[in-house]
C-alpha cells in the first residue's frame, strides 16, 4: 500500500497548494481534500458501483460522486427538504432518495437530471427505504407509523400497514427473501412478510430507540444499533434471523448514540466483522462473533458520524454531520495512534485511517 499512500499524499499536497491551505498536523497533511459533495450535513451514503457513491443531506441534493477520482458526477435536485436516506439497486443505475418532504424520488444516472418516478403518500418524514431483491418493489417506512409497499414501475402503493408508535427509523430487505426488517423509535425490531404485508416476528424490546439495522449477505444475521448517552445504551446487537429474537452478542464501547451498524464484506478466509459509527465521532470495527473491538478511529471535529457504506473489506465511506464524507481504509497495522486520524486497534490490531474527504 506504500505507493498508494504516497500517491494520495501527493494529491493532497497539490490540492492544498492550489487552495492556498497549509497542513496544520501530520494527520491532515495525509488526507486528500476533494471538492465537497454537499453544503451542510450528510444524512446517508451508499454505493452505486465500485467507484461511485450516492449521498443525501441537509442541502436537499442527491449527489453521485466518484470517490476514487475525487470528482462529482451528478447532483440531483428535486426534494424541498433534507434528504434522509438513499439506496441503489445493485447492478443498475437506479437511485432512490427519501426526504423530510414526505416523498421518495427515483432517479436514473443515465436518464438526465429529473426524477423518473415519485412515490407520495406518507404524512411525515420517510426514514426507511429498501428495494426488493428482484428490483420490482420498494418498501418505505415513516415516522407516521406507516409501512408501505410500492410497485416501482407504476409508483402505485400496493400495501399499507399502520402500527401504533411504530416510528420507523430504518428498513432492510433480507437478501434472497420475501422478508423485510425494520427498526423503530418504539425500541423494537419487526420482521415483515412482503407477500402478506404482516409482521411475522417482533423482537424483544431494547432499552433504547433502535436507530439502524443491516442484514448479513447470507441473510442469517441482523445487526441493530441503539441510541443512548454517557455509555448507557449506545450498543449494537447481533441477532440470529433463523431464530427470531435470539440475541447473539452485543458490541459495547461507544459513549453516545450508535447511529449506524453494518456488516463488512468478508474476504476468503477472513474474520467476519461489523462496523459501527457513533455520535461520539468514532468508528469501531468488531469481530462479529466474539464482539472484540478490533480497532477504533476517532474523527475529532467531525460531529456525529451518521452513516457507513462498506465498499469492500478494506474500504468504507463514512458520512458525518460536520466533516463531509470520509474515505476510510482498514488494514492490519502497527497500532500507532496518530492524532485524530489513525485508529488504535484492540486485539487484532487493525489500522484504520482516513485517506480522503469530500
Automatic annotation (TrEMBL):
Pfam family, one: WD40
Keyword Zinc among UniProt keywords: no
InterPro entries: WD40/YVTN_repeat-like_dom_sf (IPR015943), WD40_PAC1 (IPR020472), WD40_repeat_CS (IPR019775), WD40_repeat_dom_sf (IPR036322), WD40_rpt (IPR001680), WDR31 (IPR040066)
UniProt keyword annotation of Repeat present: yes
Gene3D superfamilies (alphabetical): YVTN repeat-like/Quinoprotein amine dehydrogenase (2.130.10.10)
CDD domains registered for this protein in UniProt: WD40 (cd00200)
Protein known as: WD repeat domain 31
WD repeats: 76-117, 119-160, 168-202, 251-296
Upper taxonomic lineage: Eukaryota, Metazoa, Chordata, Craniata, Vertebrata
Xref: PROSITE patterns: WD_REPEATS_1, WD_REPEATS_2, WD_REPEATS_REGION
Record key words, sorted: Repeat, WD repeat
